[in-house]
Structures are given as structure tokens and as C-alpha cells.
Design brief:
The protein has helices spanning 5-34, 37-44, 54-68, 118-128, 135-157, 161-165, 174-188, 190-203, 205-208, 211-217, 221-228, 248-259, 313-326, 332-361, 372-385, 387-401, 409-430, 433-449, 451-457, 463-469, 472-499, 503-512; strands at residues 72-78, 87-93, 98-103, 263-269, 277-282, 294-298, 304-307. The protein has three domains: 1-45 and 116-228 and 320-363, no CATH class; 54-115 and 230-307, no CATH class; 370-513, no CATH class. A hairpin with a 5-residue loop joins strand 6 (294-298) and strand 7 (304-307). Helix 14 (332-361) runs antiparallel to helix 15 (372-385), helix 16 runs antiparallel to helix 17 (409-430) and helix 18 packs antiparallel against helix 21 (472-499). It is built from 22 helices and seven strands. It is α+β, with helices and mostly antiparallel strands. 62% of the residues lie in helices and 8% in strands.
Amino acid sequence: MNGGLRASMSWLHTWTGLICGWLVFAIFATGTATVFRHEIEAWTRPSLSARSDPAVGLQRAYDHLLVAAPQATLFGVQATNGQERDMLAFWSNLDGTYGQADLDPATGAPAVDPPTGGGEMFYRFHFELMAPYPFGRLAACLAAAFFASAVVSGVITHKRIFSDFFTFRPEKGGQRAWLDGHNVLGALALPFHLFIALTGIVTLATTFMPFGMTGAYGQDAAAFYADSAPETRGMPERAGKPAVMAPLAPMIATAERELGGKVGRLTVNNPGDASARVSLHRDNQGRLSRPVSGAVFDGVSGRLLAVSPPPGPAMATNDLLYGLHMAEFAGPALRWLYFFAGLSGCGLIASGLVLWTVSRRRKLANPAKPYFGFRLVEVMNVGAVMGLPLAIAGFFWADRLLPAGLADRPAVEGRIFLATIAATIVYSALRPQKRAWTETAWLAAFAFAAIPLLSAATGGRNLAASLAAGDWAMVALDLTLVALGGGFLFMARRAGRVAAPAPRRAARTAAAE
């Protein structure tokens, strides 16, 4: 690391980028997909064709759960909003069992579509990595911190970052072209790359940096969360006296007046009991900040008991940073901007990983037989950069092809997702590096472009029906999948030209030998 600040930052940029690059690419790719997780959720549930008023959906779900879950000690419902089409319900019973279901807003009953991970799977993988709590979240936070340091050190390394923004010379080929592409992608959405990493750490701050919480509350995390939502403090124990629940509609009207916005979430403690409490929380759709604001009612009389106080400065700052990361405030145009910025981040990471091998290959004693560490990086590059897109496409295929009655179907979808990544790594290890890039790119092109056709052939949503119904969200999703397929087709053709030596050059090489 000798040679001054810039040389030290170059070393830091290179090695932090390599060490965390594969994991950060996975987080970025699934995070980019998560921008449209509600549309993906709707694609996986074709029966939910229309959005409904959140208050109406909550009322129907409330009525349904009071009858369908008579032994519940608690149940909750996340209502639909401007993007979602289904409602997520959960409950816990007296015997300690619990459950959850996706409800149809039109009826309040469970949706008729087969169980699926939907867009929620990408969202959960983005920060949990399908790893046990808290290890996945800690790994995601650590990766975000490494990525932020790589971004900052990359800025310091470049003397001419603004001129690099306008310099791309693909005709140069080799290391120069990859470096230009890496620089352009880095400068193109530089503020986004930095703030998305830092706000991502904030969303999991109590997991990654719990010292403030433990310093004030010790190991009593429940007290911390109670103070974070003081209106829910002091929930009574179950009285054991059956009681008729108050109608929900007046409580929703009161909550919306007190909270200054639409209600988006419902929680009922001790339903059907004299001690019942109904908590209604404001929907954060369209809000830059993401506060947890709610109102608590007596579930039997319907009387308002408590309302969230305004958040303090620290909590307000946290809510703002959380909201910036989640982008629930964003309209269609801004969500597309998040999506394309996410794609640029994926390209930045992928080009950096490839650049590591390109810049070192010519220094190898025998490029045809590189040492183990170099070959491992090559294999992992293909496994991460092509394995994640193939796994995402594989999820869509699994959703349409797995039997509807398959036990634990969402978990099987998740295992297929992980198995696709593992299979890509193994395939890359068994094939020459350039051939592995070309062949996996061809496969990804087909896998994405064929998804709309697969959906139509298996009785799901299809582009023609979505156009006829004016369902532009589904039209955009289908066209985006086809466009991704086109992008991988372009990549496959470019990689194929590099992988296959020109006939004259091959002939000269053979003659020389």
C-alpha cells in the first residue's frame, strides 16, 4: 500500500471490490428486482386482477379472520396500496401455532392461486440472503459497508472522474474497454450507489450496530420496541370473556383523521375477547419518510385509546433514510429511475469483477493454465454475474411449472433459486472461461425472453390479455423481461465473437505450431 493516498485507495478499491463483489452483486440484483416486487407478486397471482380500496379490503379481511381464526390470540393484515394487489395476513393461536395467508381484497378470503414466494422472495433475499437470523442480515450489512468503501476509494483513485464519465472506447478492447465501461457506470449513478449502500445499513442498524439500543436498554429489546411505538404499550392480557367486536369502518375513519392519511395495516390483539385491542397503522405509500404511526382502539367499544406521538429527531432521521432506501414514496417514473440505477450498479460490480481478471491475465506465466486463485475468481465471476440472472429467471419458470398442490411450494422455489446459482458455478468450473460466459448468456437470453410465452402457455397472464385489459403494469413487466432477454442476447453475441478466434488468426496459430 506504499505510494501515497491514491495508490492506497487503489489497493483498497481493488481488494474490497473483489472480496465483497460476488455477494454485493447478488444483493444489488435482487434489490433491483425488488423495485417491482409488487408487480412480480401480481404476476405470480393471476386471479388478483384488480386493486381495491385499502379500507374495503381491510374490512373484508377483518370479517373473514374473526370467523376463520376463532382461536387466534392475535392477527394482522397488510392492506393493498397503489402497487400491491393482495393482502398478507398472519395470526397466532392459543396453542402456540401460527400461520399466514395471502388474501384476496375482493373477498377477504385466501387467494385461489398456488402458494408462491412471489416478489417477497427477492425482497427477503436482498437483505437476509436466505440465511438464518441474524447471520444473513449481518452479511448484507457488512457487504454494504464494503461496497460503500469501494465506491469512496474508487472516487479518490480517479484523477479525472468527470472526463471518465464521457470516455468509453469499446473499440480499444481488452482492459481499456472494461476500465472505461467500469468508470462510466460508476460515475453515471454515483450518488445513488453511495446513498443506497449507506441507507441499506441504516435499515438494519439495530442488527449491525445495536450498541445504542443495548447501552440504553441492555438485553431488553422488547422495551426498546415498545418505546419506538408507545401507543402499543400496555396491551392487556386476554380476559377470557367472549365479546362481540366493534365494526371496523368507524375505527378506520377515525384513524385516518388522526393519522392524516390512509390506513395500511391492521393488528388485532385478543380478538373476540373483552380485552381486544385494534391497532391501525398509516400506509406509507407516497411518503418520503417511513414512520411507524398508528392508533389503538378498544376492540369491543371502538373507542380511541392512543395515537402515536410525533417522532423525535433521531427517529425522524432514521425514518427518512429508511424511506429513501425502500422507495415507497416513488411514483412510476422515479421507480424506473431506481430500477435503471440498480442495473447500472449491477453493471458496475460485474465490470469490476471482470476487470480484475482481464488486467491480470496477461501477467500470468501460462494464461492457458492459471493458478488456482485466479481460476477460482474466473469461476465465481461467471457464477455470480450469470448465476443470479439465471436464478431470477428460474424463479419465474418454477412459479409456472411447479405443481399447484406441491407441499411447501414457496420453499421449493427458494431452493430452485439457490440451486440455479450453484449449478452455474459448477458449469463455469467445467467449461473454458470464455465459453462459460457465452453459453450462460445465451441461456439467460432464452430464459428471460421466453417467460411471457411460458406464462401464456400455462394459463397465467399473457401480454395480449394484459393489453386488452389495460393492465399496464403487467404489460411493462412482460416487456421488461423480453428486454432483459434481448440484453443477454447482445451480451452472448459479443462474448461469442471474443470467445471464437478469427479464422485467419487461428490458421496462423496452427501453422506456427
